[in-house]
Amino acid sequence: MKARILVVEDEEVALQSLRIMLGDEGYDVLPAKDAECGLEIALREEPDLALVDIRLPGMDGLAMLQRLRQGYSDTAVIIMTADTTSSSAIRATQLGAFDYITKPVDFDHLLVLVRRALEYRELDREVRALRATQTPTPAIPAIVGHSPAMQAVYKMIGRVANSSTTVLITGESGTGKELVANAIHEFSPRASKPLVKVNCAAIPEALLEAELFGHEKGAFTNAFYRRVGRFEEADGGTLFLDEVGELPLALQPKLLRAIQERVVERLGSNRPIRVDFRLVAATAQDLQKAVATGKFREDLYYRLNVVQISLPPLRERREDIPLLVQRFLGRSERPVSIRREALDLLLSHDWPGNVRELENVIARAIAIAPGEAITADCIELSKSPVVSGPLWLQQIPYENGYKRVMAQVEEHLLRSALKAAQGNKARAAGILGIQRRLLYDKMREYGIE
Predict the structure, then answer these.
(1) Beta strand segments in 173-306, E
(2) Co-location of 300 and 325 in the same domain
(3) What three-state secondary structure class fits 225?
(4) Cβ atoms 155, 89 nearer than 8 A
(5) Secondary structure class of 84 (helix, strand, coil)
(6) Labelling 124: which of 42, 184, 377, 380 has CA 20 to 30 A away?
(7) Residue 41 near residue 4, CB atoms below 8 Å
């Protein structure tokens, strides 16, 4: 029996193109030019899959998805969008979309998503986004990025936001870990409650325990009053522990107990206080290495690393640099643009300080720009140490010979692209700029699953 696919698209050429191409693949296509018509068809015909444009006249694609889920339809939905901002991507996932694809649509990529959606449709029957439909889209500090790596981050935020699962955000300094923590909280059912932030690296070790757990009056010298700790402040909401890798080893058992039992005790008191919080932690360190060297407790690491969201460094998502630059220019008190030669300098830099470094460079450029345009002379970049190549490359013995060295480099590129694409082979091939058939051949050659 043919799988039936509903296509909701208001552009006639795009609608007919999808209808023909999906029909050629053996699918039965049900076309609709607006969300109202598409919703009626979906609820009446119960198609296996719906491809829905996010921008439609009248009701938009997300509203249609929301109404579809309220109608208890188990039709899998793929959102088509040219607006791949973090909020729309997160919202689409949170409302129950199987996936989303950017426009103009890559048909090979779309076919991969269609097959996956149809294969997993039966497993997704019980997935409902009812809690998400009761909450309006919050205004959050936007996470900027349209790259595949950032799209994967948005999807993960959408999937974990509705739960109380502990999340560990990893990534280099300046990649935006705090923004991800903000988004997780703002898209969660706890959004009306406090988001309490603690930077474990910024508070002296002697004060950190009292900061986290609070203290009673007289608990120690200069404790002239009782203080409620950050865990208690986060009751009902979210506690964000930034730079959790800097947590003193002596304090880690107490944190472990608080996470396991959701109970804290203030300094100077033996009375347990039950608290309800969602924990989000972030680190720029390699916690597995810290565990191996005895600097971080293994049991605490596994308690924190229930769900991990890994943020890519800016040098691995250079296509997002123009978007970030425009965001920072938009904050200027006077209208400022950027010349092409200046943008080329930014695109060629490795950005060891990531987005934070880029923001500082643009702020300086705006300040010294003589007119309303930033030129190459206004761009001042940090000078990276001169090295002959990446550290992993330097460690490859040249005695291995040309062919073996090149094979190691090739395998590294394949694995890195597949990791960035979350295992999506079509997307990985796109990142590398090669055909999927070549990617498959190389994966078999190097034994990559």
Answers:
(1) 195-199, 214-215, 227-228, 238-242, 263-264, 273-274, 278-283
(2) no
(3) coil
(4) yes
(5) coil
(6) 184
(7) no
d(CA 194, CA 212): 15
Does residue 144 fall inside a structural domain?
Answer: no
Query: Does some domain include residue 140?
Result: no
Confidence of residue 398 (pLDDT cuts 50, 70, 90): low
CATH number at residue 365: 1.10.8.60
Residues 182 and 328 in one domain: no
The span from the CA of 153 to the CA of 151, in Å, is: 5
Query: pTM higher than 0.90, yes or no?
Result: no
Neighbours of 199 (CB within 10 A): 14
424: amino acid identity, one letter: N
Residues 127 and 258 in one domain: no
| Domain region containing 339 | 314-378
Query: Same domain for 293 and 419?
Result: no
Which residue shows structure tokens 């208690």? Answer: 232
The length of the chain in residues reads 449
Contact (CB, 8 A) for 185 and 238: yes
Residue 386 placed within a domain: no
What residues contact 165, with CB distance under 8 A and at least 6 apart? 278, 306, 307
Among 51, 69, 283, 328, which residue's Cα sits nearest to residue 181?
283
- Give me the sign of the Cα torsion angle 16, 21, 24, 30: negative
Inside any domain, residue 273: yes
Output the CA angle 147-149-154, nearest 5 degrees. Answer: 90
Whether residue 284 is found in the same domain as residue 420: no
- The CATH number covering residue 427 comes to 1.10.10.60
Q: Helix, strand, or coil here: 215?
A: strand
Phi, psi (degrees; rounded to nearest 5) at 334: -130, 150
Q: Residue type for 180, please?
A: V
| Strand, coil or helix: 89 | helix
Q: What is the domain count for the chain?
A: 4
Q: Judge if 441 and 369 occupy the same domain.
A: no
Q: Nearest 5°: phi and psi at 274?
A: -80, 130
- Tokens representing residue 190 in the block: 């706890």
Residues 164 and 305 in one domain: yes
Q: What's phi and psi for 51, nearest 5 deg?
A: -100, 115
Q: Tokens standing for 417? A: 């692209």
- Check whether 296 has a pLDDT greater than 90: yes
The Cβ-side half-sphere exposure at 306, using a 13 Å CA radius, reads 14
pLDDT of residue 180: 95
* Residue bearing tokens 């889920």: 69
Both 324 and 358 in one domain: the answer is yes
Higher per-residue pLDDT: 49 or 96: 49
Shortest CA distance to 228 belongs to which of 188, 181, 196? 196
Taking only the tens place, the pLDDT of each residue in 76-134 is 899 998 775 667 778 888 888 888 888 888 888 899 889 888 876 654 443 333 223 33
